[in-house]
Amino acid sequence: MTTAMFSPIRNILREQDWQFAEHERPAIPGSPANPVHRPAVRLAYGAMGVLLGLTGGFGTALISVNLPTLQGGLGLDPAEIAWLPTAYVMTNASMNLLLIKFRQQYGLRPFAMIFLGFYVLFTAAHLLVHGFASAIAVRAASGMAGAALSSLALYYMMQALPARWRLKAIVIGIGIPQCATPIARLFSPDLLAMSQWRTLYLFELGLALLCLAGVSLLRLPPTERRRAFEPLDFVTFALFTGAMALVAAVLGEGRYVWWTQAAWIGWALAAAIPLFLAAIAIEHRRANPLLNTRWLGSADILRFTVVTLMARIVLSEQTYGAVGLLNVLGQNNDQMGVLFAIISVASVLGVVASAVTIDPERLTHPIMLAIGLVAVAAFADSHATSLTRAPEMYVTQGLIAFSATFFIGPALLFGMTRALKEGAGHVITFFVLFGILNSIGTLAGSAALGTYQTIREKANSAALVQTIDPTDPIVTQRLAAGGAAVGRVVGDPVLQRAEGTALLSQTVTREANVLAYDDVFRLVAALSGVTTAYLMFILWRRGRRARRALVAA
């Protein structure tokens, strides 16, 4: 039975010379061909696509959702532990600059085996390093190698579905990695209970080895190869990657070391600007640029950039806002299992719904719907109090999780269709832009919301403290109750009153934080509402122009 199940796959692996009809040829150099596969082979490709997508998503998710636990296990402060996810993004964000041309020049097979091999190596290295600096270096190296996983997941998923469903395959392939974060929150507490932080890296290593074995067994159809690299590509890559890495470092660390308190923040931005301008200046004058600056400056792409960046920022309401609020109220991952299960299911449903409803002629509508749902959910969350618990957020967080995966596929196709209309050379530019918007945009979202929450917490705390009068009978009663709570272990009345004051101060801090998170939710609702209104205006203007053109014809 097992032999019969895998025999179609083995037959494909025995094929040394692939022969393709014209309609099966790769759409662009560097992408796989699109032959007709048998059902068992399609199923295998689909399973590999899911495995690669989740493995790529877990590369950041397993660390980001367990930062407090890792901080304690490694003996680091919040600013230090934040370098682990930041270092991954620093190297991961711009790798598509080289990866696409690597596939075009050397083919898919070397691309898959080399980068998966490096990913396995660097993931294993996490288990061997114990110093802070070496952990950051290994994490940064993992970011470079892990950038290949999302592309491979997309290509394997495209092989899993028939040609007529190619767009649905793209939506599923890009949506699967987005499901990794809520899934990681579901089972990572159990992993940490086994052997603290090492179990996370062991799990990640196991997934990486499965991916390497699966890709070795089930290879993608070959692509059309051509000479792609030019000497100036590496100059642009060094300049642009350096600029993006500095920006990522600033966004990832700014709210921990505080923007105006750490001198290196200013120096990093001062260095990033000339690096970025130098890269743009080089690309602007090239005949075959990595980054087509003129296309990036077109109205459609500028609108796409603004809307996608705003979407990534408001979608941080879930990863930073809701989880942060519940953590302030004393809940951890163990106590939010049902919430994360609902978020995981909603994320999967978002991918499925996006794939089923995708329409290349109406790509703006699902994006507008997703951001509109975030506005509604965030406004509902803005009424949270210190008595709010996870069950009160099941519906709103489910809506936001659905929106996060429902939006990503149409956003990718919106930019990709416009890039393909301009020619295959624009595809590199688009994928670099899309990767940066998602990775840097996620960091920017957490940085913006985290900064706003800190500012509002200080303001709310000051306002609450001003209303507390020690001579007020209610305040006096509250201080006495706090002192009585520790009366069995503290006999001195003066110390009891001091303990009562400390307990009241903790309550004020908690309430100030809750009010600050409510302010964050209101900000997210406002930004989402403005973005939705802007998209509605674009659709209205586009429809009016179409009607005028019809009348004129």
Distance between the termini: 64 Å
**Low-confidence segments, ≥5 residues, pLDDT <50?**
1-16
Alpha-beta classification: mainly alpha
What's the gyration radius in Å?
Answer: 26 Å
Observed structural traits:
mainly alpha; about 80% helix; about 550 residues; disordered N terminus
Overall description:
The chain is mainly alpha-helical and 553 residues long. The protein is 78% helix and 0% strand. It contains 22 helices and no strands. The protein has helices at residues 2-14, 39-64, 67-74, 78-81, 83-92, 96-106, 108-125, 132-160, 166-175, 180-195, 197-217, 231-257, 263-284, 293-296, 299-314, 316-328, 337-357, 364-381, 394-422, 425-466, 473-485, 493-552. It is globular and about 90 Å long. The relative contact order is 0.10.
Put the structure in a nutshell.
The protein has 22 helices and no strands.
Question: Helices, strands, pairings?
Answer:
Blueprint (H helix, E strand, L loop, with lengths): L1 H13 L24 H26 L2 H8 L3 H4 L1 H10 L3 H11 L1 H18 L6 H29 L5 H10 L4 H16 L1 H21 L13 H27 L5 H22 L8 H4 L2 H16 L1 H13 L8 H21 L6 H18 L12 H29 L2 H42 L6 H13 L7 H60 L1
Helix pairs in contact: 2-5, 2-8, 2-10, 2-11, 5-8, 5-12, 6-7, 6-20, 7-8, 7-11, 8-9, 9-17, 9-19, 10-11, 10-17, 12-13, 12-20, 15-19, 15-20, 15-22, 16-20, 16-22, 17-19, 18-19, 18-22, 19-20, 20-22, 21-22
